[in-house]
């Protein structure tokens, strides 16, 4: 065995946590894929740049079915970085099997909110951004609230464990309550979002009341419904 050169540092391995989208297909898979296609038509960049985990616990697919499903998602430009609940169906040629993930708010997938875990931590703390959030930027702060002193551009994304406050225009995606906080709010001075989400409930641009566009707006949850109201 060759020893490392004294002039070179040793190889180091570090752990790091990232937030991933979890897709959990339901039967019949063809109908679920059709719903996914409908979501992609309404929000074409929904999966762009996201880490995606495929949870097939509810399907218990055979290996051939799993290969077909992963292939169908790849054909839709949704690369899968890992599998949950695949059991013996996982193996060579498929993404690696994962286990032990900690439940959190995932970016909602198709039209039903993900079930909430029994106990969910509430976020504390705050992050203040003095600069606008540019297109293509993603701000992730699961510890608490995010305040943007400028605007959030189209194609940008903010994921906050608590509330999101935007003192300029909100044109990108705002995902609040990402640590399981149903009391999180989204407030902005100019309302033009691509997508809104609070604690697993989401709304895309096509579902937003046109009379609110361009106005100061407050967004919150009322039970299982997302409410939006202008700020006078």
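^ Assign residues to that structure.
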């Amino acid at each position: 065995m060759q020893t490392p050169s004294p002039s070179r540092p040793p190889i180091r391995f570090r752990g790091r946590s990232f937030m991933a989208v979890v897709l959990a297909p339901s039967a019949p898979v063809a109908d679920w894929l059709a719903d996914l296609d409908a979501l992609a038509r309404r929000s074409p960049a929904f999966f762009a740049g996201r880490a995606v985990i495929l949870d097939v616990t509810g399907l218990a697919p055979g290996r051939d079915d799993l290969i077909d499903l992963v292939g169908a998602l790849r054909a839709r430009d949704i690369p899968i970085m890992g599998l949950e609940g695949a059991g013996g169906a996982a193996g060579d040629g498929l993404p690696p099997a994962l286990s032990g993930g900690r439940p959190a708010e995932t970016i909602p997938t198709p039209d039903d909110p993900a079930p909430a875990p029994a106990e969910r931590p509430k976020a504390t703390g705050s992050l203040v951004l003095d600069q606008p959030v540019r297109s293509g930027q993603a701000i992730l702060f699961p510890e608490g609230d995010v305040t943007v002193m400028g605007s959030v551009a189209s194609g940008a994304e903010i994921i906050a464990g608590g509330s999101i406050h935007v003192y300029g225009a909100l044109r990108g995606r705002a995902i609040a309550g990402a640590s399981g906080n149903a009391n999180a709010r989204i407030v902005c001075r100019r309302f033009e979002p691509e997508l809104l989400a609070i604690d697993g409930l989401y709304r895309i641009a096509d579902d937003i009341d046109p009379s609110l566009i361009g106005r100061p707006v407050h967004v919150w949850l009322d039970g299982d419904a997302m409410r939006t109201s202008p700020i006078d």
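The chain has two domains: 21-89, 126-230.
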